[in-house]
Amino acid sequence: MASTKNVTKLIFTGLFEDPEVQRVCFVVFLPVYLATVVGNGLIVLTVKVSQSLHSPMYFFLSYLSLVEISYSSTVAPKFIADLLSKVKTISLEGCVAQIFFSHFFGVAEIFLLVVMAYDRYVAICKPLHYMNIMSHQLCHRLVAGSWLGGFVHSIIQILITIQLPFCGPNVIDHYFCDLHPLFKLACTDTSVEGLIVLANSGLLSIFSFLILVSSYIVILVNLRNHSAEGRRKALSTCASHITVVVLFFGPAIFLYMRPSSTFTEDKLVAVFYTVVTPMLNPIIYTLRNAEVKIAMRRLWDKKENSGME
């Protein structure tokens, strides 16, 4: 961090400048974050304790929910606390850490969504071989690979960032630390770094999105050979996955597929994918999945019965 020692503290401009609007945002976003933690945590707990949810699909869903909690927690708590602060500051080390973990969990989620699409492809297109292909060992390797992919991606981002000289100004036009707004503060030309981020984040997002879209097209084509009940159940599951994919990749592609030289940060889009989307995912999966709803009801009934004893 020797090249960045001239600046030790950064100041966020925040989402809005009006104190009244910020207080309203605090009242709105605090329950959203709490709902994210509780909702996703409930899915993790339900999958862990329910015998009926031990299939690979729910195994991946539990890890997706764990990633959602972690991803949201890298940004939301600091952002929500800053809504009540007149001056919103963060250390340079804290800023770099926030970039690392937000990209780490964000890319881990991308890979998990790809893994979940592969799981649905095998289940629908190769049903007789499903349990042999999606073995317990393979499922753990795919999850570990998702975490590893996120780690490698984030290390690249951080190696780019810590080489840049930051000698002032120290006001970052955002409500959390991300690469493009931080690059604007560097005391050097960052066009090359912007292109690396475009390749590392933007192309990763769009290629993964194209893989997901292609896989679901193949799945939908193969559903023609299934019974009406089989098609209904498969479509219900796939619809949940597709909805989550669109909600996650839409803002990511919008923000990262533009060069840094012409980049104009849309904070409201960033709020959507860092705070709102992680809350929506458990709602999407539980509302459209009868097995998860039944398992949660059993878990709740068991809790009530144990409380009455």
- Rg of Cα set: 21 Å
* Helix count, DSSP H or I runs of 4 or more residues: 11
Percent range of helical residues: over 70%
Q: What is the total number of structural domains? A: 1
Contiguous low-pLDDT stretches (5 residues minimum) are 260-264
State the order of secondary-structure elements, H for helix, E for strand: EHHHEHHHEHHHHH
Termini separation comes to: 58 Å
Report the principal-axis shape.
Answer: globular
The CATH homologous superfamily name equals: Rhodopsin 7-helix transmembrane proteins
Largest sheet: 3 strands, mixed
What name does CATH use for the topology?
A: Rhopdopsin 7-helix transmembrane proteins
- Protein structure class: mainly alpha
Tell me the strand percentage band.
under 5%
Query: What's the quaternary structure here?
Result: single chain
**What spatial order of strands do you see in the largest sheet?**
2-1-3
- CATH architectural label: Up-down Bundle
CATH class: Mainly Alpha
The total of beta strands comes to 3
Mean residue pLDDT: 83
Function: Putative odorant or sperm cell receptor.
GO cellular component, one term: plasma membrane
Keywords: Cell membrane, G-protein coupled receptor, Membrane, Olfaction, Receptor, Sensory transduction, Transducer, Transmembrane, Transmembrane helix
Protein name: Olfactory receptor
Walk me through the structure.
- This protein has helices at 19-49, 56-73, 76-82, 92-125, 130-133, 136-162, 179-183, 191-222, 228-256, 267-287, 290-308; strands at 9-12, 88-91, 171-172.
- It contains eleven helices and three strands.
- The chain has a three-stranded mixed beta sheet.
- The protein has a single domain (9-301), classed as Rhodopsin 7-helix transmembrane proteins (Rhopdopsin 7-helix transmembrane proteins).
